[in-house]
Amino acid sequence: MPSVLRYAAFTETHAGGNPAGVVLDAAGLDATRMQAIAADIGYSETAFVTEDNGDGNLRVRYFSPKAEVPFCGHATIATAVAWAQGQGPGRLALTTAAGLVEVDVQPGERGRGPVATLTSVAPHTTPVDEADLAEALGTLHWAVEDLDPDFPPRVAYAGAHHLVLAATTPGRLTDLHYEFDRLLGLMDRRRWTTLQLVHRCAPSVFRARNPFPPGGVVEDPATGAAAAAFGGYLRELALVEPPAQITIHQGGEIGRPSVLVVDIPAGANSGIRVSGTAVAIPLGEPRPEV
């Protein structure tokens, strides 16, 4: 039985952030076994290091409780911090189903834990079909008028696909109740990983909520892949002037506050950098309901 570690990412306390399972010694496990472990852990994702030659080059696969996913940001941060706590800070190169993801792990300041920064694959966006947009809004019980015209709907990608919808008012995010099965059907058909629902609180500060029915999870408390995709979205649509940095607050509404720092470099094909901390979850800690 491989050793399963549990970390909360994008937080400095195990009671916040997004929990992830981490298996650093998954060599020899097949997809069926990894899927079973991820389902048993029950977190939104579990990362499995299937190859580690000791030189910082890792091969990683990610599983939600229901299916394999090509890339997961918070589980990447958790994996990098767990690896660094055994091997020391440094640079990692993760081969994932989405491509090569580099991670830099640095010691935290003033006694804080390590800080990991992932650099995504090249991001891009695509327009949203009008019928798909109408269906997504219907599942959320949102009207077109609820959308901020300064942030047009797009499907954003930086390793996984996320529908980006920006709300005009913060109340739309606070009062979030959606039709799980109906949204799941749409997302499965379009192969979207989460919805990235955002509201701009200040020029460089956003609040986000991320429904994740394809993973069997009502809501993701911190979504690094979506944060990277959103950084690419902002750059591609000229909604920021790169180089730029934004902060995303997520998870507060479900009792797991998270902070994701997103650096957006110049260059259309440059990867987006997402930074955060991760802390070990004590044994016996109840599994969060998200």
CATH superfamily of the largest domain: Diaminopimelate Epimerase, Chain A, domain 1
Number of helices: 6
Global outline? globular
SS content category: alpha+beta
CATH class of the largest domain: Alpha Beta
Uncertain spans: none
Distance between the termini: 27 Å
CATH topology of the largest domain: Diaminopimelate Epimerase, Chain A, domain 1
CATH architecture descriptor of the largest domain: Roll
Q: Over all CA atoms, what is the radius of gyration?
A: 18 Å
Give the helix level as a range of percent.
10-25%
List SSEs in N-to-C order: EEHEEEHEEEEHEEHHEEEHEEE
- Main sheet attributes: strand count, strand direction, barrel closure: 8 strands, mixed, barrel
Output the strand order for the largest sheet.
1-2-3-4-6-7-8-17
Strands, count: 17
Architecture overview:
By secondary structure, the protein is an alpha+beta fold. The chain has 2 domains: 5-120, Diaminopimelate Epimerase, Chain A, domain 1 (Roll), CATH 3.10.310.10; 124-275, Roll (Diaminopimelate Epimerase, Chain A, domain 1). Helix content is 23%, strand content 36%. It has helices at 31-41, 73-87, 130-140, 170-174, 180-190, 224-236, and strands at 5-9, 18-23, 45-52, 57-63, 68-69, 90-96, 99-106, 115-119, 124-126, 154-157, 161-166, 194-202, 205-212, 217-220, 244-250, 258-264, 273-280. It has an 8-stranded mixed barrel with strand order 1-2-3-4-6-7-8-17. α3 runs antiparallel to α5 (180-190). 48% of the residues are buried.
